[in-house]
Amino acid sequence: MLLASVQVTEFLPWSVFEGSALLVDRAGLEGYPDEHDVVMANRTLKPAYNTDVLPILTMVRQRCSGAIDPVVTYRNAEYRAQVAQTLPASKGSCGGIL
Asked: Which of 5, 16, 29, 75 is the one with CA 20 to 30 A from 92?
């Protein structure tokens, strides 16, 4: 199991991308970039990409007292509304990005 092999002081996956990256067979992937073998590199990466790591991430987040669903936690905290009160009113139409 992935979580059992990870120490608390080591890197813990918090996103699906980070969790999938931990599953990549790095030893199997090693020579393909130098050989420009895209097909074999893709074949090596696909199992990690296709593995559902969400249950593992949920367990990691729960064990570390993190938000099991960060987006829902962010929305429920109403952080966006609080920050909007501290920012100056927007002039023009920048779409809220800047």
From this structure: 75
Q: How far is CA 83 from CA 10, 16, 92, in A?
A: 33, 27, 19
- 0.85 surpassed by pTM: no
In eight-state DSSP terms, residue 66 is: -
Distance of alpha carbon 83 from the chain centroid: 25
Identify the CA nearest to 41 among candidates 22, 20, 25. Answer: 25
CB 18, CB 51: distance < 8 Å: no
The end-to-end CA distance of the chain, in Å, is 42
Place of tokens 């030893």: 27
* pLDDT single digits (tens) 56-77: 888 888 888 888 888 888 889 8
